[in-house]
Write a structure and sequence with these properties.
The protein has 440 residues and is an all-alpha fold. It has one domain. Helix content is 68%, strand content 3%. β1 and β2 form a beta hairpin. α7 packs antiparallel against α8, α9 packs antiparallel against α10 and α9 packs across α11. The longest helix has 34 residues. The protein is globular, with a radius of gyration of 24 Å.
Length: 440
Amino acid sequence: MISKSLPRIRWSQLFKPWENIDPWYLLCAVALMLLGSLMIESTEHGIADLHDGNFWPWLFASFKAKWFVHISTGIIGLGAALALPLFRYEILMQWRWIVYGIVNVLLVAVMFFGQEELGAQRWLNIFGFYLQPSEFAKLGVIIALAATLQDRPARNLGAMFQAIAVVAFPWVLIFLEPNLGTSLVFGAITVAMLYWGNANPGWLLLMASPLISMLLFNTLLAMGWGYLALWFVWVLGIGYVGWRTLPWRMWGGLGASVVNLVSSGLGGFIWNNLLRDYQKGRITMFMNPEQDPMGGGYHLIQSRIAIGAGELWGRGVNQGTQTQLNFIPEQHTDFIFAAVGEELGFVGSIAVLLIFLTMCFRLLVIAQNAKDDFGSLIAIGVFAMVLFQTVVNIGMTIGLSPVTGIPLPFLSYGRSALIMNFLAVGLVQSVANARQKARY
């Protein structure tokens, strides 16, 4: 009998389909997801104690626990993130309007069939699974906007307004939910992708200037009439930017100044008639949460206490008093960083920031080395989404920015957000996998 030796398995061949993906980006996402599961478990404070230490009741209860849902959703998302690099991302150029149409249909469906919670209508109940279309709309808009700028870079005003029009419709639907936080994320994504798509930085400043003028005018007016001189200098500066960058010179500069003057006056109307009370509180309360310590300022006060109590090394997992005694509402979602600060301390908080910093750096490397503009713009869109959400979420947790309801990527509890973030990882890894391996 002739024996045939089996061929030796080369492990490198097994990983060949993923040989050009960025491992650091993937590892950062997985590390944050696992840390998020640990922190969410801690915020549920003592599930084992509820069942007197008995194993089987604890096990069955764990299947329903938020930390278990988070990690199981993360595993599903990780599977998708590993599968997407096996496909060519360029096919999305042909499917962009289908993806764009699906997310807009879902956003419209929310307006008619959505579940309302905390004054906002954002979720669709699909066979018991609560889907948040606004999360997936972020990725859908990134794809559509990247394809639009690939076809027509924003080198002129017409191309830039065409790109803005792509974002405008889903942005309006999300703002009307109302979902102020996600609408702000859309703005960050749009500005970053337009800049990467060769838009004049002066045009981007002019685009954002009405909102800045509105906020500046009303803030300075509250401080006193004398401070409005600063606002007037700002309006004149915007007029100068319009004169230098718009094709109509004098009329462009004059128009930019007039638009900012009008928008400043509209600020009061929008504040009094369009924004809900809870949105107003979220915007202004961070400046002085002690004005309503048992109401709108309660989250912020307790969050700062928790982070300060962590000191250098933290109190230890499941040992934080603010976290374990449930002093911080929504601590498993918007305020998850407060649990990190209290139980892992300054060192743990810095470690989380370094992971996010590494993730953002790798996204820039992938964008810089992508083989085409479409892939590069996708990576920049995801970069802007992750960076903006991280800065705003951590900023609101430590009292440096308004409470906007923006989750912390990969750490905050939320199945739709976690799945979307891992889909973004997979899509960007598809971009990385299609390029020559960068030496960084």
